[in-house]
Every structure is written in structure tokens, then in C-alpha cells.
Amino acid sequence: MKSPSLFRSILRGIYNYFIFFLLVAFLVTCTTMLFVRVLAETLAIELTGDNLQMAAKLTFLNVLLLTTLFAVIDRVRRKLTTERATKHIVSAAKEIVRGDFGVRIAPLSSLSIDDHYNEIIDCFNTMASELASVETLRTDFIANVSHEMKTPLAVMQNYGKLLQTPVLSDEKRMEYARAITDASRKLSDMMTNILKLNRLENQQIYPKTETYDLGEQLCECLLQFENVWEARNIDIDTALSENVLVSADRELLSLVWNNLFSNAFKFTENGGRVTLTLVAEEAFALVRVQDTGCGIPPEIGEHIFEKFYQGDTSHATQGNGLGLALVKRVVDIMQGEIHVESEVGVGTVFTVKIGRVTDEPEEAR
């Protein structure tokens, strides 16, 4: 590896020297000829062949001397400026390649250093910070996925072994089969949500906007949980403004409402209440989903939109910590806002703010 690099370095030195030689030869020759001509005309000196030959030799030696001097100065200049800066950057880049994303380059303060190198260093440090964040997210994501997959796989494995018991009643067999089905469904839902979230984060899902009545969509999504609230005797309160039109991706927004409703019913005790409100403001539609559940402590509320984060471990078997991450990403894509207000022992309110259509189109009337 060193031989080709050394050979290229020698060739580069020869090339630079040749360029300096041509430049110096041109300048010295022109100035010398001009000086000799003016001197000869002024002093009426006759130039002989010997004089011209001697002047040519001195001029050539002068060119060689100046070229060597300029090449040495240029080499020292490059050593102190360009090579010094690039050495720092290359050294840090090698650390990045080896997986050390904590490396940073200190700005160069010497007056001989071009400011453009500090711009490159700033960009490099920013890139290293982003790579460190991505690496942390990747590591956490893999760890969380592995952890979340262990539970349903362990359930399926254990109940699968129990199903192999020779003497097993039909009732137990159905119970074990149902447990395996539920675990496999949870695993399937988690994989589906991971794929959706990955596509959303990598902008592989492009919203297909259409104008529709938001209140109707909210009612349709809420009715999907009718069996849940009836089985658990949960009261439903709705206050929906009429003719609230939005221009959005209907399918993506349904993910938001379904996840918010699912969380509301999951954390609301039997006999509790879930309230759905839709309010039309000047240019926005405000959707509030409120429950009378256990509430969210402040330290947990700061992380609820992170992937795989589950603040209430007692309900971990009912979800995989991806729902609210999906909600946040969809709302961001729709250029909306989502906020959460919660009090422990009182309940939680999720508020989604999205743009609405203020002028009703003809086809929607």
C-alpha cells in the first residue's frame, strides 16, 4: 500500500515542480529580455553572442533556483495548512469507519488555515452526531424488537408443548389453541406496525389526500370498539361538530383514531367513561379523545411517542409500544400537532390538531 502512495507522491512533486518551472521560466525570461533590451537601447551597448550566451545561462540558473525555492515554500505551506487540516479529518473519519461515533474534530484556529476547512469540520461533527443518534436508535430498536418477540414466542412454545399432552380435555385444548392464536396475532400485529412505521419514517408512504367529513370517520372508527365498551360497561360521550371537512389521507388518519381509541379503552377501567370531541376552529379541526383511566405520570408522558415505550407494564400484553409512535409520525406527515394532558388517577386527554377545509367543494355538498 505504501509503494503506490509514495510513487504518486513523487509524481505529484515532479508535476508541481514542472508547473513552477514553466511559470518562473516565462516570467524571468520576459523580464530579463525586457530589461536587457531597454538597457542596451539606453546605454547604446552592443550585445554580442558571448554576452547573450552568458545571460541565457545565468537566466536558466536563476529559473532553477527560483523554481526550487517556490516548490519548497509551496511544500511547507501545504504541510502547515492543507495536510494538517486533512490529517485531522481523515483520522476522525477512520474512527467513524471503526464504529466510534463519539469522535469530534476541534475547529482549527490558525490564521494559515482556510475557513472552508472549518466548515467541513462543522459538517463532519454534525454528521457524526446524527450517526451516533441513528446508531443508538438502531441498537435500541433491535433490543426492543427482540424483547417484544420473546413473549409471544415463549407463549406459543409453551402452549404448543402443552397441546402435545396425550390426555388433554377438549376444553383445555381449545384454551391452549386460543392462547397460541392470540400470541401469533400479537406477533403479526407487531410486525405489521414495524413495517408501517419503517415505511412512514423512510417516506415510502405518500399521502393520498381527499376531502371528506372528519366527524363521519371518527364515528366509524369509534363504532369498531362497540363490543369493547359494551362488554366493559364503559360510557361513551360524543360532541362532534357537523360538516367539519378535512383534506387528508383517510387511511392514514384512521390509524391515528384507531390507536387513540384503543389506548383509551385499554386504560379505562370497567364502568369508566371515554369522551370524543370534535371542534372546528378557523383553519383547524381539534379532536380530543379523553378517558377516565389511570393517567400518565409526567416522567412517562415525555416518552410515550417513542417506539416500543410502554409506561404501564401491567398492560404490556395488550400492545407492543408502537401505536403512539405511528400516531405521532402520521400526524407529522399531515402537518398537524398532537398533545397529551394527563393526571394520575384522573385520566388522559389526547388532542390532535389538523388543518381543515374552510370552503366546501361542490362535490362534497
What features would you describe in this structure?
- The chain is of the alpha+beta class.
- The chain has helices spanning 2-43, 49-80, 82-97, 115-163, 170-201, 214-223, 226-231, 250-267, 298-301, 323-333, and strands at residues 209-213, 235-240, 245-249, 273-280, 284-291, 337-343, 347-355.
- The strands form 2 sheets. The protein has a 5-stranded mixed sheet, with helices on one face. Strands 1-3 form a two-stranded antiparallel ribbon.
- The chain is elongated, with a radius of gyration of 38 Å.
- It starts with a helix and ends in a 10-residue tail after the last strand.
Short description:
The protein is of the alpha+beta class and 365 residues long. It has 10 helices and 7 strands.
List the keywords.
single chain; 365 residues; alpha+beta; Helix Hairpins; Heat Shock Protein 90; 3 domains; 5-stranded mixed sheet; 10 helices; 60% helix; disordered C terminus
pLDDT under 50 segments (min length 5)?
Answer: 308-320, 361-365
Shape: elongated
Task: Summarize model confidence as the mean pLDDT.
Answer: 77
**CATH homologous superfamily of the largest domain?**
Histidine kinase-like ATPase, C-terminal domain
- Per DSSP E runs of 2 or more residues, the count of β-strands stands at 7
According to CATH, the fold-level topology of the largest domain is Heat Shock Protein 90
Number of domains in the coordinates? 3
How helix-rich are the residues, as a percent range? 55-70%
The arrangement of helices and strands along the chain is HHHHHEHHEEHEEHHEE
Alpha-beta classification: alpha+beta
| Radius of gyration (Å) | 38 Å
What is the top-level CATH class of the largest domain? Alpha Beta
* Number of alpha- plus pi-helical segments: 10
Question: What is the CATH architecture annotation of the largest domain?
Answer: 2-Layer Sandwich
Strand content: 5-15%
Strand order of the largest sheet: 2-4-5-7-6
Biggest β-sheet strands, sense, barrel: 5 strands, mixed
